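agent> fetching stored inputs for the EPS docking request
agent> found them:
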Amino acid sequence: MGFRFLTSGESHGKCLTVIVEGVPAGIEIDENQINKQLARRQQGYGRGGRMQIEKDTVVINSGVRHGKTTGAPICMVIENKDWANWGLVMAIEQINIEDEKVKELVDKKRISHVRPGHADLAGALKYNHEDIRNVLERSSARKTAARVAVGALAQIILEEFGIEIFSHITRIGTAAINKNDLPQDYTELREQAEASETRCACLKATQAMKDIIDSSKETGDSLGGLFEVIALNVPVGLGSYVHWDRRIDGLIAQAMMSIPAIKSVGIGAGEQCAELTGAQMHDEIFSKNDEKNYQRKTNNAGGIEGGMTNGCPIIVNAAMKAIPTMKKPLNSINLDDGQEHIAHYERSDVCAVPAAGVVGEAMLAIVLVQALFEKFGGDSLLELKMNFDNYCDNYQKR
Ligand code: EPS
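agent> prediction call returned; pasting tokens
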């Protein structure tokens, strides 16, 4: 069945839970490696007050023994510290709504003024909820913390095969990087992005991004942007051209699109490919030192041709829309009486694009691990490595 997972948990509920199945035995797991990724997701200029409350850390409850995976399902839990303030409003058990104090507290958090752009309206109609909080709590991007924990696990596995994943932010609102200002070297690009408050590898653009976030905050508006995720050292041949649902570009696009607020995903040249001619678009192949060491000077394909990885870096771009919870709310309706009313506002981020980049890394890592396991199989790390090494040794000789 491969590597799969299920998450559960509400934004202001007790905790986020995830069960990951299909992890081979013998992989060294250190909770700190997962916590490091969770901390990265919490950062970024433009985040709201919630991130001051939370300090996301994972508790591994099963599937790991003496620091190594056993092959059994892995259960991970991330506590919501804010739950302490929401115990009654988010109580699992029945509450006494007759009690005036209880009713007042719950009503204070009840939502009926739908936010355009959020899951509010369609979610309330679909699930027949009167209180939109029932929709908000699960549709909130808070749940991406659980996916980042799975992604961190996936990245630990990929590292065993020399595969590295990182991301950087290329645009927030109208503040964008100039590609010529970016370091050519990936190590440098990665380091500069990690040092930036907006996770952008260009100092000038970082400042422009911070300025636009500040002015958006002042006017009560919100911002979206673009991020790029890069995977290095991916072997040739993950995914396949033989059937639609085995194409790795399709799988990556689905995974990226599943991140809340993502409206567009591109691979390599992305939508720019529409304007390039064949001669401009395709990455010529040459053989380095005539040794059948196939190389490309360009990578407009973003590391994927015919639904398969081609050995070049995988480059994925995703566009995130501006957050729909705004201090200066848009016109909308009140679901209780159908009358016009401005949309609901509660504490939120002005911009979460830097965090979305970290979630993007997690989603790409998950897809690559799934593809790697599908191709190489193995119930233990040893078996997987033997299969992987055998394949790499042989295809490189061709
Ligand atoms: C988030 C937690 C949330 C928001 C944000 C993401 O916390 P709260 O709603 O308590 O302030 O900061 O959620 C959204 C953008 C959203 O649309 O729900 C997190 O942990 O990432």
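agent> quick read of the result: The chain has a mean pLDDT of 96.
agent> awaiting further instructions
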